[in-house]
Every structure is written in structure tokens, then in C-alpha cells.
Automatic annotation (TrEMBL):
Highest taxon of the lineage: Bacteria
Protein name: Glyoxalase
Keyword Cytoplasm: no
Alphabetized GO MF terms: lactoylglutathione lyase activity; metal ion binding
Domain VOC stretches: 5-119
Keyword Metal-binding: yes
Keyword entries, A-Z: Metal-binding
InterPro entries in the record: Glyas_Bleomycin-R_OHBP_Dase, Glyas_Fos-R_dOase_dom, Glyoxalase_1_CS, VOC_core
Amino acid sequence: MTINQIQQIGLPVKHLETAILFYQDTLGMKFLFQTETMAFFDCNGIRLMLSIPEKKEFAQVGSVIYFQTEQIEETYDKLIEKGVLFLDSPHLVAKSGQIETWMVFFKDSEGNTLALINERLA
């Protein structure tokens, strides 16, 4: 048995329509389709599923999803203009050889913590 690819990431939401607007309009993700309790987006081949949890035990806040961006400062500025609540500003978190890793954390419309990540030459 081999597991070698992420097919889908699921995030619990309380207000599906608000979450759809955030991911589609604010973040600019490609909307795929929706059901009564779920909405699906394409993130460069990985499907993001927003869902109203079926059971109470699935309603906890999800893991941090790190969205890659080529220009972290520019993306940060554009999302601030759209009203996104950032927890910090873009900052260097690691350096390995000639590669620097920059991140910034923010909240979605449902309170989930998300991040932008940018890896670039030092």
C-alpha cells in the first residue's frame, strides 16, 4: 500500500454561503460545485472541501492550510484591502541554504487559521 498524494482537504464551517464567498471572492479560489452542506474548490489539483459537519465530533477547528504564493507581500496587501484578518505580517520563518521560507497567518470567515507561504532565493 502506498499513499503518495493529497486528494482533498476538508474544513468544517458553520455558515456555508459566507465561507463560499470568502474562498471564492476574497481568496480567488476556483469554485467547483456545491451540495446542500458542502462546497468544493480546486487549489491547483488539490480539492478543498468546506462542509457543515455531519456530527458534533467533526465540528472542531481544522489544521492550518498553507497556500503557496509567489509574491507574499503583494498578496498580503491585496487581502488586507479585502478585509482579511491577519494574525501577523509576512516574516521569515526558516532558511535552508539559499532558500528562505516566509509565512503569514490569517483567519477565514469561519475562524479557521490559514497561512500564506513563499519559498524564495535568499
